[in-house]
Write a structure and sequence with these properties.
With 118 residues, the protein is an alpha+beta fold. The chain has a domain at 45-118. Helix content is 30%, strand content 23%. The chain has helices spanning 24-40, 97-114, and strands at residues 54-62, 65-75, 85-91. The chain has a three-stranded antiparallel beta sheet with strand order 1-2-3. A hairpin with a 2-residue loop joins β1 and β2 (65-75). The relative contact order is 0.16.
Length: 118
């Protein structure tokens, strides 16, 4: 993962080399769990979208208002090398990630494929 930084002027423009955050085997375990959430869990709304998606749904409860809904993930799942995208969709007061945010993510992935980004 590349290191993020603010460049104020030429004195701090040095680029640090990418650092490994997770071992490859651990990253594969997490990716598989995210794929399972799409194929047999709460993210099923994007299963069968034509591009294999891995993701995680969520709901952020609010006091006195409908919950926010979210879905994060990446596509395509299971592709070694090649183009991939990562995304995060948040629907304010959308109630459930699987029913409101995940379908939007599916549309986003479909558009990325159509544009040649995948």
């Amino acid at each position: 993962m590349p290191q993020g930084r603010w460049i104020v002027d030429e004195t701090n423009a040095r680029v640090r080399p990418p650092e490994e955050l997770l071992s490859s085997p651990l990253a594969q375990v997490i990716a598989k769990a995210m794929r399972d959430a799409v194929t047999s869990g709460t993210g099923r709304a994007v299963n069968g979208s034509g591009v294999p998606i891995a993701g995680k749904t969520g709901t952020a409860e609010l006091a006195g208002a409908s919950s926010h809904a979210w879905f994060i993930g990446f596509a395509p799942y299971g592709q070694a090398g090649g183009k991939q995208i990562a995304f995060a969709v948040l629907v304010e007061n959308g109630q459930y990630g699987g029913s409101s945010a995940a379908p939007i993510a599916g549309e986003l992935v479909a558009a990325a494929k159509e544009l040649g980004l995948l």
